[in-house]
Each structure stands twice: as C-alpha cells, then as structure tokens.
C-alpha cells in the first residue's frame, strides 16, 4: 500500500493509492490556486485545446514536448514529459489520457498539473519554461518500514545522489540504477528532470528533492518526491523497463 501527501507548499490533501495501479490512474493532480479561470469556448479554452494537441504530437517521439499558443492574456504554456524508459506508444497513450483527465479534474482552471507513472503534463497562463517549479510537489511512500532505517536511508541517499549526478549531465536528464543490499537484495532508483531546465537547475532541483527524503520517506521501503520540474524514486523492486 502506498500513501501520498502533498508537500508543504501545496494544499494538504490525503489519499490512499494501491501499489498496483490499474490502467492509467493518475498518481496525483493539482489545480492551481493562483491561476484564473476561463469559460467554455472562450479564447483561452481554444488555445488550451491547441496546446494539448501540440503536446500529443511533440512529446512521444523524444519523450518531451513544450507548447505555447495564443497571445496574452489568453496565452497557454504547456509541457509534457514521459519517463525516460517508456516507449513512444506508451508515452502517447499517457499524454492523451493526461490531457483529457486534467481538464476533467481542473475544469475551467487556467493552471494545472497531473502526474502518472509514465508521464507528467502541466499547463499555465504564465510562462514557466526554464524555471524550477517548487510549488507543485507531492510525496508518495510505501507504508511499510525497513528494519534498520539509519543504514537504509544512507543507502537510498547514496544511490539517488549518484543518479542525480548522472541525470543532470545526460541529454535526456534521466537516470536509473541499482545498489546491492545485504542478503542478495537490491535497491532500485530513478531521477529525472523536465528538459526545459538547464543542467545546473536540473541538479539544483534534484538536490532539493533529495534533501526532502528524510522528512518524506524516512525508513520507508519505497518513496518518491514528485515535482513539477523533477522527480526522484526508490524501491526494493525493479520498476523501470529493461
């Protein structure tokens, strides 16, 4: 069983998530409390439709896409990113689902974000490209604890820190890896940034997420810090595609 909670910068909301997610169930979503509202069929709504259509087209080939449609004050900025190990077909499926679901969950809201296992999609009436998003963040963690939290936490930090150093230097800003534990067990990890960030800001975002692990996931068998610009994850089982 997994537990999720929003980070301190977000409105508090609690929900239980099954570890095995059936279909394309979202991990979490946030409707911006700072953005304005639009009405059906107005200029912003039409620009949002075009932005979502652009992301359908741009994202699957490389796993990342951005869009900006229209003129202020109705301009729409959008971004979508798929997990680095996801196929183009699965990426497209996730982005299509995300663009539909985010509009259902954040009806008439001019800013929103939604996360899935395979992708993230975000749009806003304010430009956010190249900026670290510290506002939208959620913690997910396994409710089960390890027996030796001190040793385990050190192993988690060692693995995720190493993957952070790999990710910010890679073209895809994505890295996965594993670390041997005692009794033939392994710890698996993932780090990823949205590719609108610079390498320096990617590292800064990932380091910030790593610093939150003690308060988020202390001694938990699995955990994630999932943000609008980067995310980190660790588990005691392999969770990425080979």
Automatic annotation (TrEMBL):
Tagged with keyword Signal: yes
Keyword terms: Repeat, Secreted, Signal
Domain (Gnk2-homologous): residue spans on this chain: 26-128, 134-239
Pfam families with a match to the protein in the record: Stress-antifung (PF01657)
Compartments where found: Secreted
Signal peptide: 1-23
CDD domains named in the record: Gnk2-like (cd23509)
Gene Ontology cellular-component terms listed: extracellular region
Domain of life: Eukaryota
InterPro entries reported for this sequence: CRR_secretory_protein (IPR050581), GNK2 (IPR002902), GNK2_sf (IPR038408)
UniProt KW Zinc keyword: no
Family the UniProt entry places it in: Belongs to the cysteine-rich repeat secretory protein family.
Protein name: Gnk2-homologous domain-containing protein
Organism expressing this protein natively: Tetracentron sinense
């Amino acid at each position: 069983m997994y537990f999720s909670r929003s980070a301190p910068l977000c409105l508090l909301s609690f929900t239980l998530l099954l570890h095995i997610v059936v279909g394309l169930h979202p991990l979490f979503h946030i409707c911006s409390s700072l953005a304005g509202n639009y009405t059906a069929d107005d200029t912003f709504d039409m620009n949002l439709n075009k932005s979502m259509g652009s992301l359908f087209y741009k994202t699957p080939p490389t796993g990342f896409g951005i869009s900006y449609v229209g003129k202020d004050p109705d301009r729409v900025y959008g971004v979508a990113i798929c997990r680095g190990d996801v196929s183009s077909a699965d990426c497209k499926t996730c982005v299509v689902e995300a663009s539909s679901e985010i509009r259902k969950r954040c009806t008439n809201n001019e800013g929103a974000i939604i996360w899935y296992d395979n992708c993230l999609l975000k749009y806003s009436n304010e430009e956010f490209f190249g900026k670290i998003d510290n506002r939208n963040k959620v913690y997910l963690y396994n409710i089960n604890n390890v027996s030796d939290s001190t040793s385990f936490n050190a192993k988690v930090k060692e693995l995720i820190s190493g993957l952070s150093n790999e990710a910010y230097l890679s073209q895809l800003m994505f890295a996965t890896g594993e670390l041997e534990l005692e009794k033939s067990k392994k710890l698996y990890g993932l780090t990823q940034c949205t590719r609108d960030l610079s390498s320096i800001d990617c590292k800064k975002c990932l380091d910030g997420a790593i610093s939150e692990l003690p308060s988020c996931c202390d001694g938990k068998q699995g955990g994630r810090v999932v943000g609008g610009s980067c995310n980190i994850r660790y588990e005691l089982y392999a969770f990425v595609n080979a």
